[in-house]
Amino acid sequence: MKIHNLTREEVLRTLVTSEDGLSEEEAKRRLSEFGFNEIKEAKKKPLYIKFFKQFTHFLALLLWAAAFMSFLSEYLHPGEGMLTLGIAIIAVIFINAGFTFIQEYRAEKALEELKKLLPFYVKVLRDGKEKEIYARDVVHGDVILLSEGDKVPADARLIETSGLRVNNAPLTGESEPMLRRHEAYEGEFIESHNIVFAGTAVVSGSGRAVSFATGMQTEFGRIAHLTGAVEAGLSPLQKEIVKATRVIAVIAAVVGVFFFSLGFLIGSNFWDNFIFAIGITVALIPEGMLPTVTLALAMGSQRMAKRKALIKTLTSVETLGSVTVICTDKTGTLTQNKMTATKVWTIDDEEEARESLLKTACLCNNARFIEGQYRGDPTEAALLKAARETIGDFKGERIAEIPFDSDRKMMTTVYKMQDSGFRIQDEKNRASGIMHRVSFVSFTKGAMESVLPLCSHLLIDGKEALLDEKIRKRINDEYHAMMDKGLRVLAFAYKELKENSKFKIQNLKLESEKLENSELESDMVFAGLAGLEDPPRPEAPEAIRKCHEAGIKVIMITGDASRTAVAIAREIGLVKGNPVVIEGPEFIRMSDKELRGKLSEKEVIFARMTPKHKMRVVSILKEEGEVVAVTGDGVNDAPALKMADIGIAMGISGTSVAKEASDMVLLDDNFATIVNAVEEGRTVYENIKKFITYIFASNIPEAVPYLAYILFKIPLPLTIMQILAVDLGTDMLPALALGAERPMPGIMKQPPRKLQERLLNFSLISRAYLFLGPIEAAACMFGYFYVMVNGGWRWGEMLSPNNILYMQATTACLTAIIITQIGNVFACRSLKESVFSIGFFTNRLIFLGIAVELLLQLLIVYHPWGNKIFGTYPISLSAWLVLIPFAVFLLFADEVRKRIRVLSP
Amino acid sequence: MYKRILTAVNEHLNSEVTARYAMNLARVSGARLYLCFVAEKGMAASTIDRAEEAMKRIFIEAGEIGIEIEAVTETGDPVKKISELVRGERIDIVFASTRKEDIERRFYAGTIARRLSLSLPCSTAIVRVVHTGRIRPREILVPLKARIDHVQERAYFTAKLAQAFGSKVFLFHSPEAASKFFHGEIHLTPLEWEEKLPDDISDFMEYMQKYRIAHAGRSVPGSTGRVIAIEAFSKRHDLIIMGASRRSMLSSILKGNPVEEVLRETPCDMIILKPRVSI
Question: To 5 degrees, how large is the angle CA A232–CA A233–CA A239?
Answer without folding.
Answer: 130
